[in-house]
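Structure tokens please, single chain.
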Amino acid sequence: MYLNVQLKIIPLANPRGVKLSCELCGKQAYYQCLGCRITYYCSEKHQKIDYEGIHKKICGYLMPLKEASEFLGSEDQRIKLQKEIRNKKLEIIHLATTEAKKNMFEEKYELAIPAALQALRYSQDVYKKKSIESIPSYLLLGKATTGLKNFKQAEDYLLLAKYALFKSKKKGYKVRYQLHRNLGILYTFKKQYKEALLELSNDIYYSSLLYGPEHICVSGGYFQLGNVFYYQQKYSSALSAYSHVINIWNSYFEEKNTDVFDEALQAEAQNMFTRILEIREELLPESKKNIELAEVYLAFGQLHYITKKYIDAKKNFEEALKRYQLEYSNSNINIIQIKSFLREIELNI
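Here you go.
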């Protein structure tokens, strides 16, 4: 962790012909990061956004990368060093992408942009500028600017992603479904629901081809589909889509397979469960609330349990247990499962 400290600089004191630009907006820089000493900002506000968004996690990478790129040595040494530099850049891409996704799902769109920009910058550095590997970064930028309601900028980023996909000869099911999902979200924000439904149908199709129709990575498409139906006031269809999301996640937790479960997916799950809980509270008749709310609390409990947030897990399991016990006997499989989780939690807190 590097300190959030900057040095004020005077542009007129720069060497002749040297213009230092803001990391976020490209305007004239007046501040320099004292950690890496190679990152500049136009204002304290942009320095703070970048620091919170990604810089605090990659500051320590930047100066060594710059020094390594200027290294002069034998050809063998340079080849070895270039491999090390490439691996470091790939680390930054992964780190920045994960951080951008995490901020996105927590709806911290302004903080997601710096991380997505870093991922794009290093993706274009490591790969070709319009390669398929740059598409995830364009998608992140498209989603973040959509969240900020900057729809024109969002559409521009998504069109760049679409063009890069068109130029690529790879099938790219992963980037295809992500592109369709982001376009679906954009059209939902713009209240173009017919277009949104078409994009989200394609999202579910391509993600199902890649992972299988009951995979957690497909659940986000069903969730967005549910959102469109909700905004169209097609509440029965919305509740059906949300039910599919919860069923997918509870089945996933039962399998105890966490191979693809990174911070970004954790944040996405948290966001989806919260939204579904609110809408079930709003729409469901009292006769159905206990069981269907219990399903969400059970999913929340398992989410917190596998991320070792045992206090939160206990709270949600207890709420799920209370609601299930109002409807079922103690021989119910969900009640047995929750009691088992609660016993294990007691051993960990």
